[in-house]
Every structure is written in structure tokens, then in C-alpha cells.
Write a structure and sequence with these properties.
By secondary structure, the chain is an all-alpha fold. It has one domain. It is built from 23 helices and 2 strands. The longest helix has 25 residues.
């Protein structure tokens, strides 16, 4: 049966089979299964190999072969993902989707660990939830405040012997920046409080990672719903379900950015019919992490005044109770964080720095470019909402070149929604940079090369798509 691509090209089943070679559908499915199951090995190995809160990443005393083993596992996992996803996208549709979800669940479970591996942020999540359960505003005190001593337990504040085993002084804590009040906005705090309410008393690392696995599954479900609703290839869900990036950062590290990914998919799902509702969702996403505010132009194609006012109203309303409770302390350690990361001085923009643009000029130029992209999306773009959302998030990441790779989790979800694999390269660019920082390598050089290559891949892919439009992937089986 002939099928019509988005470029208007009629493609027969026979032509399609010639393109894919003589390998039958079940052959592609079998190969995908082999690669998918093989990826469980590095996923499980990584989960028990390193301890972020111990002495592995921060210490130069750890044998280099441990870090090398981690790097080999991660590279192997990415290669297996690329091979497995490539095969799965050629396998029969229904069986491929079932395999994608089954292996994805297996990867999530295999990645559960006894300790934080690449980031200890979720310990802060747990603490903020516990503080709120005690009826205390999370912005009022830092974790080490004497007023909060009664909330400490052996999980977040280990006994002296555990601290010694980790190479730390007595009274150590699993919580990062324990001398600073929280940085997370009100919607994130609401999520932490909800998780603290749902999870049983005395939960440990795997329980919080289970919340990450839950959100990871919610994103997969939303992707399948939207792909089916928009008559796109449902096999694209593999770009989320099997991606090492989403499993490591979304499940094992349990970053709240996976919640942003959920909201990003909801935004593009409703924006065409209900732009004001979409603006509410953008505001909520920005109240989880601030950077999703860049998605506002996607909602501002129509009813711009109502959309803009709604966004501001929701954002302000969420902060008002905390401002009334603690005043200016509601900003937490955000100013300190921005200065630590180099954004306060404008020297943090790696790619702009290589172009000779540094300091306040770099900050101004990054803001101007992002504003120009937002204006284009608002006024001239005729692309789908998810394509515009990918563009905004992707350009933002390439401009600000964050050390934190988990900021790209919403981009990965949107990439899967459009089968837009080049944006996965942008997401992956954060990992070499982050690992270089942890390992005290030449992080500036590694980050520049990593994000620079990602920018080249995206640019080349955009040029190829512009001048040589490709038929949309066919739905088979």
C-alpha cells in the first residue's frame, strides 16, 4: 500500500522494503531486542560503580581505572542505544512499541542504586519535603540551622562512622550546600512535599528514585498518546525510553527536570486550542525550574496579552505566600549559584567565549539571540508547537552551555515527540562537560568541544532538512 510523506512524496511498500534491505521486520525486532537487553549491563554496572557523595568523584585518590570503567560503560550504553533504536525504528510497529517500553522499564529498574551516582540533588529534594511536612517554610532556614536539628535522621545526616567511611568529618550530611537555603521554586517545593507525603516514613534512596521512574514512565505514556493522536510514528518513544541520558538523569539521579518534561509535553499538546492554559503550564514549569520560561513564546502566537498576563499572575501568586512568610530570603541561594556558575560575570558562555565574546557582553548577546528566536516563534514560525519548543530549549542550551546535563531532559522528550534525533546530541553534550568538572580535567576545553560538536550537528541537520526534505518515517506493521 502506498503512503504519502510530509513532503508529498508517494512511497510504496515495495520501495520502502528496498530501502531497508531484505531483512524482514522480525529480524529488525530481534536485533533491537539484543541491543536493548545488552544495554541493561552497563546500566546496572554504572548504578553500583560510583558514589557521588562518597570519595569517588571528588577524590584524586581513587584509581583511574574506576573512572575509566565508568566512561567505557557510558560509551557502550550510548552505542547500544543508537544501534538498538535504529533497528527498532525498522521493526513492526506494535511489537516495537511493546519492546521499547519493556526494555525501558528494565533500564529504569536496573539503574536503581544504593547511593547517588552522578548527582546528590534528590537528597535536597527529600529534605525540603521533610521541612514542609513539619510546617516550616522551606526558604526560612538552611539545612544546618539549629532550628531544624530535630528533623535530622541517619539517612540524610549519617552517624560518625559512616561519615568517616566517606572521608568526611563527623556531622556530615548527604545534602548539598547544606549551609544555604533552598534554591528550588514553589512548584518544585509542592512536588517535594507531595512525594514526602506519599512515600512511607524512613524512605531511602531507591524510594526517591522510584519517583523518578514514575515520572519517566509518565513521559513515555504522554509521548505515546501524542504520537498516536498526531499520527506520528509511535516507535519514536524509544528515543526517550532507551536513552542513557534519561535513565541516568531522570531515574537514577531523580532530577525534578523530568517533571518539567511532563509539563513541556502538556504545553505543546494544548497550546493550539488553549493558549491561555498553555501559559499556565509554562508558568508552572518555570516554577519547577526557572529555565522553562523560554517556552512562553510557543503560547504567545495568539491572545498574547492574556497569555502574558496569565503567566505573570500564576508565577507571582505562587511566590506571594513565601514572600509574606520569609521576605527576601525566598530567593534562596540563587544569586550565589549564578555567580558560582559564572553567569553573574558573563564568563560562563563557552561557545560565545570561543568567539571572543565574554563578560556582560556575552550575557547581553545570549539574551538578545534567545529573544530573537522567541520573537520568530511568536510572529513568523509556521512550524508545529513541539518543533518551536525544541528550537527554544535547544538554542538556550547551546547559548548558556550548562554544566548540569539534566537541564536537557525536557528537550529529550520533545526530540522523541518529533523523531528529532539531532537534538539528542545537544542533550548528550552536557555529560562530557559535567564529568570533566567532577574529574578535574580541562572542563572548559571539553565542554567547548562537546557543545561545539552538538551545535555543528544541529546546524548540518537543519541545512540537510531544508535543502533535501526527507519523507516522514513510515508506520508499518
Amino acid at each position: 500500500m502506498a503512503q504519502v510523506s510530509s513532503a508529498g512524496v508517494v512511497t510504496s511498500e515495495a520501495t520502502r522494503r528496498r530501502r531497508l534491505g531484505r531483512i524482514p521486520g522480525w529480524g529488525w525486532l530481534l536485533a533491537a531486542g539484543v541491543f536493548g537487553l545488552a544495554s541493561l549491563v552497563p546500566a546496572h554496572d554504572i548504578s553500583g560503580l560510583l558514589s557521588f557523595t562518597g570519595r569517588v568523584w571528588p577524590s584524586a585518590e581513587v584509581a583511574n581505572d574506576t573512572r575509566l570503567r565508568f566512561s567505557v560503560d557510558l560509551v557502550a550504553w550510548w552505542l547500544l542505544f543508537i544501534a538498538g533504536a535504529g533497528c527498532l525504528l525498522r521493526a513492526p510497529r506494535r511489537a516495537a512499541v511493546a519492546l521499547a517500553l519493556a526494555v525501558g522499564l528494565g533500564l529504569g529498574v536496573a539503574s536503581l542504586s544504593d547511593d547517588a551516582t552522578l548527582s546528590n540533588d534528590f537528597y535536597r529534594y527529600a529534605w525540603d519535603g521533610r521541612v514542609q511536612a513539619a510546617g516550616i517554610d522551606p526558604y526560612r532556614y538552611p539545612p544546618n540551622a539549629e532550628e531544624l536539628r530535630g528533623l535530622r535522621d541517619d539517612w540524610l545526616w549519617p552517624p560518625a562512622d559512616v561519615c568517616a567511611a566517606r572521608g568526611k568529618d563527623p556531622g556530615c550530611t548527604m545534602i548539598n550546600r547544606y549551609w544555604q537555603p533552598t534554591i528550588y521554586p514553589p512548584a518544585a517545593q509542592a512536588w517535594f512535599s507531595a512525594v514526602d507525603t506519599v512515600l512511607p516514613t524512613g524512605v531511602r534512596t531507591q524510594a526517591w528514585q522510584g519517583t523518578g521512574l514514575f515520572l519517566y514512565a509518565v513521559v513515555a505514556g504522554l509521548l505515546l498518546w501524542l504520537l498516536t493522536r498526531w499520527r506520528r510514528d509511535p516507535r519514536w518513544v524509544v528515543l526517550w525510553a532507551w536513552c542513557p541520558y534519561t535513565v541516568l538523569e531522570g531515574v537514577q539521579a531523580t532530577h525534578v527536570d523530568t517533571l518539567v518534561a511532563v509539563l513541556a509535553l502538556l504545553i505543546v499538546a494544548v497550546v493550539q486550542a488553549r493558549p491561555v492554559l498553555a501559559s499556565v503550564l509554562v508558568s508552572v514549569a518555570a516554577l519547577v525550574k526557572l529555565y522553562p520560561a523560554v517556552l512562553l513564546p510557543v503560547a504567545m502566537r495568539r491572545q498574547r496579552l492574556a497569555v502574558g498576563l496569565t503567566f505573570v499572575a500564576v508565577f507571582v501568586a505562587a511566590y506571594v505566600p513565601h514572600v509574606l512568610a520569609v521576605g527576601p530570603r525566598v530567593v534562596g541561594y540563587l544569586p550565589t549559584y549564578l555567580n558560582e556558575e559564572g553567569y553573574g560575570t558573563g564568563n560562563r558562555f563557552l561557545l560565545l567565549g570561543r568567539l571572543g565574546v565574554e563578560g556582560p557582553l556575552a550575557t547581553a548577546l545570549a539574551a538578545a539571540v534567545l529573544a530573537a528566536v522567541g520573537l520568530y516563534v511568536m510572529t513568523r514560525s509556521r512550524r508545529t508547537p513541539d518543533a518551536d519548543a525544541r528550537l527554544l530549549l535547544g538554542v538556550m542550551l547551546l547559548l548558556v552551555t550548562p554544566i548540569q546535563p539534566w537541564y536537557a531532559l525536557p528537550l529529550v522528550a520533545l526530540a522523541a515527540l518529533g523523531g528529532a534525533w539531532p537534538w539528542l546530541v545537544v542533550a548528550a553534550a552536557g555529560h562530557p562537560f559535567y564529568l570533566a568538572v567532577l574529574s578535574r580535567w580541562d572542563a572548559g576545553l571539553i565542554g567547548t568541544v562537546s557543545y561545539g560538536l552538538a551545535a555543528v550537528v544541529v546546524a548540518v541537520a537543519a541545512l540537510v532538512a531544508r535543502w533535501r526534505p526527507q519523507p516522514a518515517p513510515l508506520v508499518s506493521g
